[in-house]
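Hi Q.,

Before the meeting this afternoon, I wanted you to have the flavin mononucleotide prediction in hand. No need to reply - just skim if you have a minute. The sequence and ligand are here:
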Amino acid sequence: MRELRRFGLALACVIMATSCAAADKEALVPLPPPRQEGGMPLMEALARRQSQRDLAPTPVSEETLSSLLWAAAGINRPESGKRTAPSARNWQGIDVYVARADGLFLYEPREHRLRRVLKEDVREAAGKQPFVAQAPIVLIYVADASRMPDASADAVAFYSATDTGFISQNVYLFCAANRLATVVIGWLDKEALARRIGLPENRRVVLSQAIGHPAKEPAPEPDAKPAAVAKEAPRWRDGAYRGSARGYVDDIVVEVVVRDGLVRNVTVVEHKESRPLRALRDLPRRIAMAQGTDGVDAVTGATVTSDALLEAVRQALAKAAP
Ligand SMILES: Cc1cc2nc3c(=O)[nH]c(=O)nc-3n(C[C@H](O)[C@H](O)[C@H](O)COP(=O)(O)O)c2cc1C
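Predicted structure with the ligand bound:
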């Protein structure tokens, strides 16, 4: 009889564990890999950085959200687990929540995924101005005092504010670089929002931040090129084209992707160069911005590598000529 009871108990445990794991799995939302290279030059993004409150209801793609979250507080040095934003004593005390029409999610940087926290839409509690409730994405920054163990209450408040500021500015710059509109929000009932989210006592809402495509401009692709060039007739045939040229050590092979007649992406697919790699990192973006190699100069101190990369792109584009 005792054996039977023990068996019953074990079976119940297995069933519970399985259903918990299934429920947990359901709550996890994987994100596509974030874009960690290319994009607008920093100085241009700084020149464009601004608060914009006129947001279109157009959804923000999962690809953009993924890169946005990585830019906000993602891990940029996997060996140490450190982030794109600094944090006092590396406490990493700020959590980033994503509020959308389909619920509330916690960003988990280590796994680069979202964890669903609520099925309800809490956006209207994340800011007193009406546009916040309509923003496709509202980030909510939550400070966790239990991760700042040696800090006084004043220090917790101070570091919660500073560390949130760094994350928020990363988001501002990402939005500027990707032609998204954003504004950070301090005008909200933080206690009411914390209750709505169900935060425990030691966690506080610091700020929120509304994000969307700007209402006044069409929503451009993140990799779209400057508007002035985009208006011209297509120059290339769509497709993916490869070219190669001899670098310092061996051939550098590139792939150029053309979509809607425009150079959308330039990728170095093979190389054996050991240094300096800046040319391989910077030139593809500059070539995409210039829509070709015309006017793109070699990177100082890396002329051989630069010239080879430019020649490889020229060869690839020759195959894409209309
Ligand atoms: C801590 C903080 C809280 C803010 N809260 C709000 C807010 O609740 N609502 C809002 O519309 N803008 C808010 N802003 C945005 C400021 O109004 C904006 O940054 C300022 O007007 C300067 O404009 P700029 O960001 O375009 O340079 C806040 C900014 C900061 C730094």
